[in-house]
Design goal:
The complex is a heterodimer of chains A (221) and B (226).
Chain A: H1 8-42, H2 45-60, H3 63-73, H4 83-108, H5 112-120, H6 125-155, H7 167-178, H8 181-213
Helix pairs in contact in A: 1-2, 1-4, 1-6, 1-7, 2-4, 3-4, 4-6, 5-6, 6-8, 7-8
Chain B: H1 9-50, H2 53-68, H3 71-84, H4 91-116, H5 120-128, H6 133-163, H7 175-186, H8 190-220
Helix pairs in contact in B: 1-2, 1-4, 1-7, 1-8, 2-4, 3-4, 4-6, 6-8, 7-8
Classes of the chains: A mainly alpha (221), B mainly alpha (226).
């Protein structure tokens, strides 16, 4: 236990890196999820297919393989990314693909009558999406997107395998120096749990806000 | 910078035998890990339902911890902790344990949802007919609870498959590890890593098709067990 104390600051630095990667990747994932989800459910035809291919490719193969591909194989095609950029790009694109299906599902779950009414009232397609479909779909998206954010947090551990000094990487390092396996991994698992609970808390705040601002009662939708 | 699309078919083909051997290990880890997850998941679900309150609460906490923390860290913890308590399983066994444990937490929720979805009246009717617990589960509850679980369980099998490359971090020579070895020997990662990605894509798309058919089939017989 005492042997680990001098290395606490290193573990906390790793925690900070993990938080940074998580935040940056969530941002990218949300953008990708909205873009691909909206295009696939309501976009023009060629874009629908492009979005579908993106979703299937990133959901269909393994996160670690994708990360290796982007980090080790892309340079062969002339695109060299930093480890941080490669990690964030992979996590954002991968989780974004899962998120796109959540967004699509939520859009498709809006009752047809709503669209028909909007058409009857002469709203152009963009306005239909922005004023009718999206506001009703949004509250439905939040809880599953929150679960995906936790999956993304867990996925950040993989960046330790492409040389980033995140929480998992630091844990490995401190373990190999102190040989206090139980203490180090107990602490690190606890820190990940703490991060996950923080994300859950933040998602609940967002959910309450969205429901309030769109006037949806707690258990409807 | 000129973008050079360099794909060497000859080299790609020469990678295949090694990758296929890796695929064998990958599938082995998947099947054994999933079998363990199915069994342990049922244990957690039953403990949660029927055990005394402190045990049930501890089970819930354990499931939460396993689900909220990275599989990679869990694998490392098992890989380094087990030898400290005097057992030294092979890396593949540790990997199977880790995968099984991680996914058992998810599957226990599937079992729970499935059992909760059986209407109360079914339990009451079974009791009124004094069927006894084993008979109640076998003939009344499970035939109604299991079919809706099958597609969800299939999805977790595919997720587990996609997590098997993590075993390379604890020295298991599965498919991705084979690709890395190939790459480091020839300084060409393009072909082996791409082939591994394509292999995962093909397997999970095929599995997705099977699951969708299972979904269509099982949801149409919901409530009408044969």
């Amino acid at each position: 236990m005492k042997a680990v104390l001098p290395y606490l600051s290193q573990i906390l630095e790793g925690l900070l890196t993990t938080v940074e990667i998580t935040a940056a990747s969530i941002l990218l994932a949300v953008v990708m999820a909205l873009a691909a989800g909206l295009l696939r459910s309501a976009g023009p035809v060629p874009f629908r297919q492009i979005a579908a291919v993106y979703v299937e490719v990133f959901r269909g193969s393994s996160l670690l393989v994708q990360m290796f591909w982007i980090y080790f194989v892309l340079p062969a095609f002339g695109l060299q990314l930093s480890a941080f950029a490669a990690g964030v790009l992979t996590l954002g694109l991968n989780v974004g693909a899962y998120g796109a299906e959540v967004v699509r599902g939520a859009i498709l779950a809006v009752p047809r009558g709503q669209i028909e009414a909007a058409v009857a009232l002469g709203f152009p397609p963009a306005t239909r999406l922005r004023r009718i479909l999206f506001p009703q779909a949004l509250p439905r998206m939040i809880p599953p997107l929150g679960n995906l954010a936790i999956e993304l947090l867990k996925g950040t551990a993989l960046v330790s395998l492409i040389t980033i000094h995140d929480l998992t990487f630091r844990a490995q390092m401190v373990r190999s120096v102190t040989l206090e396996t139980g203490v180090v991994f107990g602490l690190v698992l606890f820190l990940y749990l703490l991060l996950a609970l923080t994300i859950t808390g933040l998602v609940q705040v967002v959910e309450r806000r969205v429901r309030k601002s769109y006037g949806v009662p707690r258990h409807a939708g | 910078m000129p973008v050079e699309l360099s794909w060497d078919w000859g080299y790609a083909v020469s990678c295949l035998p090694a990758l296929l051997r890796g695929l064998g290990v990958t599938l082995q880890a998947m099947l054994a890990g999933y079998a363990l997850a199915l069994g342990l998941g049922l244990v957690w679900a039953l403990l949660r339902r029927a055990a005394p309150a402190p045990v049930a609460r501890a089970t819930v906490g354990f499931i939460e911890l396993v689900r909220s923390t990275p599989l990679l860290v869990q694998l490392y913890a098992l890989y380094f902790l087990l030898p400290e308590v005097g057992v030294s399983p092979s890396a593949l066994t540790v990997g199977i344990l880790g995968l099984g444990l991680h996914y058992s937490a998810y599957l226990s929720e599937v079992y729970r949802a499935g059992l909760d979805a059986v209407p109360r009246e079914q339990w009451e009717a079974a009791r009124a007919l004094s069927l006894g617990a084993p008979r109640t589960y076998r003939s009344v509850v499970l035939p109604q609870a299991v079919p809706p679980m099958i597609p969800v369980m299939g999805n977790y099998l595919v997720s587990l498959l996609k997590d098997t490359p993590l075993l390379s971090a604890i020295t298991v020579v599965e498919m991705l590890h084979r690709a890395k070895i190939q790459g480091s020997e020839s300084f060409r990662y393009v072909e082996p890593v791409t082939l591994v990605g394509v292999a995962f894509l093909v397997i999970s798309l095929a599995a997705g098709g099977v699951i969708r058919r299972a979904e269509a089939r099982w949801s149409s017989v919901e409530g009408h067990p044969r």
